[in-house]
Amino acid sequence: MAKRGRRSSAPGDRAAPCPCGSGGPYAGCCGPLHRGEVDAATAEALMRSRFSAFAVGDAGYLLRSWHERTRPARITLDPDRRWTRLEILATDRGGLLDTVGAVEFRAHYRAAGRPGTLTERSRFVRADGRWVYLDAEPG
Fold first, then answer.
1. What confidence tens digit (pLDDT) does each residue in 40-97 have?
2. In what order do the strands lie in the sheet with 114-127?
3. Could you give all domains of the chain from N- to C-terminal order, each with its CATH number?
4. Could you count the other beta carbons within 10 Å of the beta carbon of residue 36?
5. In terms of DSSP H, where are the helices of 11-139?
């Protein structure tokens, strides 16, 4: 998921649904994570917030939530790819008391007017007490 475009109206609309699929408003769901007000409590919460960051075009959050050992110098977001829906397929650890975790997901998007999906198993670790994205295996 290295490319994404700013397509969602969520950041400007406090009542807009969160792109992560939680059912809650962006302002009370992933918005506080993107603004750095809180940290993700679980690996799945971080995965959801990262998907939302791709959906709203927040490259800064993606970099900040990436482990320093595997983080690229920059991310180029694709303005023609619109991320539309996230499905969590499985989780492995990544809870409140864990230090490692994995989340398998399917991310839906539209590009050039056509639907597509990306399936991936992302790995997460705690670094300095907070969850960060480590790397991924294609699904």
1. 999 999 999 999 999 999 999 999 999 999 999 999 999 999 999 999 999 999 999 9
2. 81-93, 100-111, 114-127, 130-138
3. 10-138 (3.10.450.50)
4. 10
5. 31-34, 43-56, 59-64
Beta bridge partners of 138: 120
Collect all residues with Cβ–Cβ distance below 8 Å to 110 and sequence separation of at least 6: 81, 82, 84, 116
Percent of the chain with pLDDT over 90: 87
Backbone angles phi, psi at 90, to 5 degrees: -165, 155
Could you report how far apart the first and last alpha carbons of the chain are, in Å?
Answer: 12
How many angstroms separate the CA atoms of 94 and 134, rounded? 12
**Alpha helix (H) residue ranges in the chain:** 31-34, 43-56, 59-64
